[in-house]
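Reopening: Zinc finger PHD-type domain-containing protein still failing for me.
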Amino acid sequence: MNNKTPEKNAISKHNNDKNEEIPHSTTDQNDSILNSTSVKPSDIISFPKAKHAQVRRKNSKKSEILTSTPYKDILTEKLESQQNSVKKNVFGKKRKAPEDRPKENIEQKLPASKKLSGSVDDVACPLCSEHYSTSEWIRCGSCSTWWHEDCSEYSGSGEFVCDFCT
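Support: Ran it again with your exact input. Result attached.
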Protein backbone atom coordinates (compact mmCIF):
# COMPACT_ATOMS: atom_id res chain seq x y z
CA MET A 1 0.00 0.00 0.00
CA ASN A 2 2.68 2.22 -0.91
CA ASN A 3 1.49 5.23 -2.92
CA LYS A 4 4.98 6.27 -3.85
CA THR A 5 6.29 6.00 -7.38
CA PRO A 6 9.23 3.66 -8.05
CA GLU A 7 11.65 6.60 -8.44
CA LYS A 8 10.68 8.10 -5.10
CA ASN A 9 10.97 4.70 -3.50
CA ALA A 10 14.52 4.38 -4.83
CA ILE A 11 15.43 7.80 -3.48
CA SER A 12 13.90 7.11 -0.10
CA LYS A 13 15.64 3.72 0.09
CA HIS A 14 18.92 5.40 -0.81
CA ASN A 15 18.33 8.02 1.85
CA ASN A 16 17.37 5.43 4.42
CA ASP A 17 20.60 3.58 3.69
CA LYS A 18 22.68 6.64 4.53
CA ASN A 19 20.32 7.87 7.23
CA GLU A 20 20.16 11.23 5.57
CA GLU A 21 17.17 13.24 4.66
CA ILE A 22 17.04 16.17 2.31
CA PRO A 23 14.79 18.81 3.81
CA HIS A 24 12.96 20.21 0.79
CA SER A 25 10.96 22.63 2.84
CA THR A 26 13.99 24.53 4.22
CA THR A 27 15.51 25.16 0.78
CA ASP A 28 12.18 26.44 -0.46
CA GLN A 29 11.98 28.78 2.53
CA ASN A 30 15.52 30.10 1.89
CA ASP A 31 14.72 30.75 -1.76
CA SER A 32 11.58 32.65 -0.85
CA ILE A 33 13.51 34.77 1.68
CA LEU A 34 16.23 35.57 -0.85
CA ASN A 35 13.70 36.50 -3.50
CA SER A 36 11.75 38.73 -1.17
CA THR A 37 14.82 40.67 0.09
CA SER A 38 16.80 40.95 -3.13
CA VAL A 39 16.97 44.38 -4.71
CA LYS A 40 17.93 45.10 -8.28
CA PRO A 41 20.37 47.93 -9.02
CA SER A 42 17.80 49.45 -11.34
CA ASP A 43 15.43 49.79 -8.35
CA ILE A 44 17.99 51.92 -6.50
CA ILE A 45 19.42 54.07 -9.28
CA SER A 46 18.55 54.54 -12.90
CA PHE A 47 21.10 53.55 -15.50
CA PRO A 48 22.44 56.32 -17.74
CA LYS A 49 21.14 56.27 -21.24
CA ALA A 50 23.52 56.74 -24.12
CA LYS A 51 22.80 59.68 -26.33
CA HIS A 52 22.92 59.36 -30.04
CA ALA A 53 26.20 60.87 -31.19
CA GLN A 54 25.78 63.33 -33.99
CA VAL A 55 28.52 63.19 -36.56
CA ARG A 56 29.40 66.47 -38.18
CA ARG A 57 30.42 66.15 -41.74
CA LYS A 58 32.68 68.63 -43.41
CA ASN A 59 31.74 70.01 -46.74
CA SER A 60 33.61 67.93 -49.19
CA LYS A 61 35.53 69.64 -51.92
CA LYS A 62 34.52 69.11 -55.46
CA SER A 63 36.87 67.43 -57.82
CA GLU A 64 38.37 69.94 -60.18
CA ILE A 65 41.27 70.21 -62.50
CA LEU A 66 44.01 71.91 -60.50
CA THR A 67 45.45 73.73 -63.47
CA SER A 68 42.15 75.18 -64.64
CA THR A 69 41.87 78.96 -64.65
CA PRO A 70 38.75 79.29 -62.41
CA TYR A 71 40.33 77.07 -59.76
CA LYS A 72 43.58 79.05 -59.85
CA ASP A 73 41.65 82.31 -59.55
CA ILE A 74 39.83 81.07 -56.45
CA LEU A 75 43.09 79.96 -54.85
CA THR A 76 44.84 83.26 -55.52
CA GLU A 77 41.87 85.19 -54.07
CA LYS A 78 42.01 83.08 -50.91
CA LEU A 79 45.74 83.64 -50.54
CA GLU A 80 45.41 87.40 -51.05
CA SER A 81 42.59 87.66 -48.52
CA GLN A 82 44.65 85.74 -45.95
CA GLN A 83 47.67 87.96 -46.50
CA ASN A 84 45.64 91.16 -46.36
CA SER A 85 43.72 90.26 -43.23
CA VAL A 86 44.97 92.07 -40.16
CA LYS A 87 45.83 89.80 -37.26
CA LYS A 88 44.94 91.03 -33.80
CA ASN A 89 47.70 91.23 -31.25
CA VAL A 90 46.84 89.36 -28.08
CA PHE A 91 48.34 92.00 -25.81
CA GLY A 92 46.77 94.96 -27.60
CA LYS A 93 50.14 96.63 -28.26
CA LYS A 94 52.00 96.67 -31.48
CA ARG A 95 55.30 94.90 -31.13
CA LYS A 96 58.33 95.99 -33.05
CA ALA A 97 60.08 93.57 -35.30
CA PRO A 98 63.43 92.35 -33.93
CA GLU A 99 65.33 94.34 -36.59
CA ASP A 100 63.54 97.58 -35.64
CA ARG A 101 64.36 97.33 -31.94
CA PRO A 102 67.39 99.21 -30.74
CA LYS A 103 70.14 96.94 -29.53
CA GLU A 104 70.60 97.06 -25.82
CA ASN A 105 73.97 98.15 -24.61
CA ILE A 106 75.46 94.90 -23.38
CA GLU A 107 78.50 96.34 -21.70
CA GLN A 108 77.91 98.06 -18.41
CA LYS A 109 79.80 101.28 -17.99
CA LEU A 110 79.89 103.22 -14.80
CA PRO A 111 79.73 106.96 -15.47
CA ALA A 112 82.24 109.09 -13.56
CA SER A 113 79.71 111.66 -12.42
CA LYS A 114 77.45 109.10 -10.81
CA LYS A 115 77.96 108.51 -7.09
CA LEU A 116 77.81 104.88 -6.04
CA SER A 117 77.26 103.22 -2.71
CA GLY A 118 80.14 102.85 -0.25
CA SER A 119 80.73 99.21 -1.17
CA VAL A 120 81.70 100.14 -4.75
CA ASP A 121 83.94 102.97 -3.50
CA ASP A 122 86.03 100.38 -1.69
CA VAL A 123 86.53 98.24 -4.81
CA ALA A 124 90.04 98.17 -6.23
CA CYS A 125 90.99 97.47 -9.83
CA PRO A 126 92.40 93.92 -10.06
CA LEU A 127 95.26 95.05 -12.34
CA CYS A 128 96.50 98.34 -10.86
CA SER A 129 94.94 97.98 -7.35
CA GLU A 130 93.71 101.59 -7.52
CA HIS A 131 90.46 102.31 -5.71
CA TYR A 132 87.42 103.81 -7.41
CA SER A 133 88.16 107.21 -8.87
CA THR A 134 86.76 109.51 -11.51
CA SER A 135 87.99 107.37 -14.41
CA GLU A 136 85.71 105.04 -16.40
CA TRP A 137 85.04 101.63 -14.90
CA ILE A 138 83.57 98.59 -16.59
CA ARG A 139 82.16 95.37 -15.14
CA CYS A 140 83.01 91.85 -16.35
CA GLY A 141 80.02 90.02 -17.80
CA SER A 142 80.94 86.64 -16.34
CA CYS A 143 82.52 87.24 -12.89
CA SER A 144 81.07 90.76 -12.19
CA THR A 145 84.38 92.32 -11.09
CA TRP A 146 84.98 96.01 -11.80
CA TRP A 147 87.96 97.05 -13.93
CA HIS A 148 89.37 100.37 -15.09
CA GLU A 149 88.50 100.72 -18.72
CA ASP A 150 92.11 101.80 -19.37
CA CYS A 151 93.53 98.73 -17.56
CA SER A 152 91.39 96.27 -19.53
CA GLU A 153 91.71 95.25 -23.16
CA TYR A 154 88.09 96.23 -23.84
CA SER A 155 87.54 97.57 -27.38
CA GLY A 156 84.20 99.27 -26.68
CA SER A 157 81.87 96.84 -28.48
CA GLY A 158 80.20 93.68 -27.23
CA GLU A 159 80.29 92.22 -23.76
CA PHE A 160 83.37 92.85 -21.63
CA VAL A 161 85.17 89.76 -20.31
CA CYS A 162 88.08 90.39 -17.94
CA ASP A 163 91.59 88.98 -18.24
CA PHE A 164 90.94 86.43 -15.49
CA CYS A 165 87.88 84.96 -17.25
CA THR A 166 89.49 84.70 -20.70
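The first strand starts at residue 109 and ends at 110. If you still see a failure, please send the error message rather than a screenshot.
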